Amino acid sequence: MQYYTYILTSGRNGTLYIGMTNNIVRRVWEHKNHVVEGFTKKHDVINLVWFEIHSSAENAIKREKALKRYQRKWKMELFEEKNPLWIDLYDEIVK
């Protein structure tokens, strides 16, 4: 099984959200469709701009917690390296 750490945003230079899941397609769909009450629904954080694959839930959780401690600037540098235009990667992962 694969596990994912991911970053969502409300739009370019908008609010960031970091999470982890074992099913990234389902989880991002839930964010996009406001299925679960909470931060992402309140702030309309629905665009997947970065994700990483892990072989264990433990590693994905460790990475999620580490990313949450980093400054916003570092988080943005992380995903802008591969996604400088903040393109929503959801269509890419659904294929």
Task: Please provide a brief summary of the model.
This protein is an alpha+beta fold. It is 43% helix and 22% strand. The chain has helices spanning 24-32, 39-43, 57-69, 72-80, 90-94, and strands at residues 3-9, 16-21, 47-54.
Helix content: 40-55%
Into how many domains do the coordinates divide? 1
- For the record, the CATH class is Alpha Beta
Which architecture name does CATH use?
A: 3-Layer(aba) Sandwich
Major sheet description: 3 strands, antiparallel
Q: Pick out the low-confidence regions.
A: none
**CATH topology-level fold name:** GIY-YIG endonuclease
What value does the average pLDDT take? 97
Please state the structural category.
alpha+beta
The fraction of residues assigned to DSSP E strands is 15-25%
Shape: globular
Number of strands: 3
Radius of gyration: 12 Å
Number of helices: 5
Spatially, the strands of the biggest sheet line up as 2-1-3
Compute the separation of the termini in Å: 19 Å
Q: Secondary-structure element order, as H and E? A: EEHHEHHH
Give your account of this protein's structure:
With 95 residues, the chain is α+β, with helices and mostly antiparallel strands. It has a single domain (3-94), classed as GIY-YIG endonuclease (3-Layer(aba) Sandwich). The chain has 5 helices and 3 strands, in the order ββααβααα. It has helices spanning 24-32, 39-43, 57-69, 72-80, 90-94, and strands spanning 3-9, 16-21, 47-54. It has a 3-stranded antiparallel β-sheet with strand order 2-1-3, with helices on both faces. The radius of gyration is 12 Å and the shape is globular. The mean pLDDT is 97.
